[in-house]
Amino acid sequence: MLSGERIDLNLFRVFDAIHRTGSVTQAAAQLHLTQPAISNALRRLREQFDDPLFVRDGRRVVPTPRAKAMAAEVADALRALQQTLKSPQSFPADTSTRRFVLGMRDVLESVLMPSLMRRVLQGAPHLQVQSTGIERSRLERELLSGAVDLAIDVPFPIGEEIAQERLLEDELCVVMRSDHPLAGGPLRLKPWLSGRHIVVSTRRTGAVVEDLALQREGFRRDVAVRCQHYHAACELAATSDLLLVLPKFFAARFSGSLPLHQAPVPLAVPPLEIMLYWPRSAENDPGHTWLRERIRDVHP
Asked: Which CATH number fits domain 10-86: 1.20.1330.10, 1.10.10.10, 3.40.50.2300, 1.10.340.30?
């Protein structure tokens, strides 16, 4: 009878190897263990089952009746465990009530969450998804602690324990009210710089992408308003002479409801990149993998 002590599952690998080879020495070689380690494991098995399990017969060891009775079940159980470890687990999306937390800024939430949730709920109607704001300085810590499952943000330096991939890339454009004096023809650099501008950033201070491009060329512009959200910035651009630079997918979203004219930025500006971040420890988690696949399909 088994003792009340929990048994080490590795002992069953030793049991199976001895039963198959009929030798403590050969079992040690197969398992890449020393012979004393195998002998110690066999001693513990004998104590657990209160049975010798294997007895010497010349140069071989043979199983006792108790060992013969359990050998097939032990072998089957080990094969099943190995198969489980080798084969990727499936995620029961249609019945899962699992909760995922996505870290993203609300400006991204407004354009990504509707499309994402349509895809998620089609395949996993009971899944729970929470979007939450997260500071970049805390993003790595939140991912590693499990407080946040995935994050969506612009590129920035992050530790090796965090996996990342490019999720979206979009060009920047200029928007202005549809009857703006600069809306009548191609937008040139000098007239664009002569106007007053709106900047969108969640940071209180600091240059944004287009300002960095201007600084490299030795230019500056007059920023009249610094907003936190593109929605407010577009409303302001549609009702004033102010000019706004933003990604094209935001411009397309707001141009449908606001009288806005769109034009290319009259300067070489790098596209906006949006990255997907997740902890490497969740790389092979079936549910995590399922959700990452849905996120990769999202388009604003």
From this structure: 1.10.10.10
Q: How far is residue 129's CA from residue 14's CA, in Å, rounded to a whole number?
A: 45
CA distance 46 to 40: 10
Q: State the Cα–Cα distance between residues 269 and 172, nearest whole angstrom.
A: 7
Q: How would you write the pLDDT of the chain (300 residues) with one tens digit per residue?
A: 444 455 677 889 899 999 988 999 888 888 888 888 899 999 999 988 999 999 998 889 999 999 999 998 898 888 777 766 655 568 899 999 999 999 998 878 888 899 899 999 999 999 999 999 888 888 999 999 889 999 999 898 998 899 999 998 899 999 999 999 999 889 999 999 999 999 998 788 888 888 888 899 899 999 999 998 899 999 999 999 999 999 998 898 888 899 999 999 998 888 889 999 999 988 889 999 999 999 998 876
pTM score: 0.65
What is the distance between the alpha carbons of residues 29 and 12, in angstroms, rounded to a whole number?
A: 16
